[in-house]
Amino acid sequence: MVMELVKQHSVASHFLAELRNVDVQNDPLRFRRNLERLGEVFALELSRTLEFVELEVTTPLGMARTHRLAEQPVLATILRAGLPLHQGMLNYFDRADSAFVSAYRKHRKGEDGFDIEVEYLSSPSLHDRTLVICDPMLATGQSMVLVYKALLRLGKPKALHIVSAIASAEGMEYAKLHLPAGTRFWIGAIDEEMTAQAYIVPGLGDAGDLAYGNKI
Fold it and tell me: CB-based contacts of 55: which residues, under 8 Å, 6+ apart?
């Protein structure tokens, strides 16, 4: 299943429009906050697919029949760009466990090509858990697939959700081909093109730099 938020005509489209806007991007605080707010929207939409249990709670005037999540998911993100999106989801899944993975592009000298390096990993057991991996950009899809494979060291999840603000059409096809059958994708918008350096067009630029400053 693929859900593309911009096709739903909600306030999420406004957040995404500001994320893309070069004038609004001049404010890192605003950029991070918009990613966080998108994460909150994704969390709400994703929660509709999870299991709930019925229970009664005591109010000042009696008993109310209510529902709560049967279990909390594990929220994983890719450092550093994924942190604001992760925080937005954590605002709603406020008792969820978290996992963090360091992955980056290691560019080949004198070439446009690059390899994906996965280094640091911190995660709870994922055995039979619902795993959500969030990263603002899903460009080639290679980082997402390698991060998922790295997380499998901690156990095999029973369900996998992928959350990205913007994805490329090519990256979506790669991810769907290399991730488990039944993976659900929650995407803000899908763009058709990528540059030779694997940046999404029109995309929004480098999410990590826009959120936290340029890196050397």
Answer: 65, 66, 67, 68
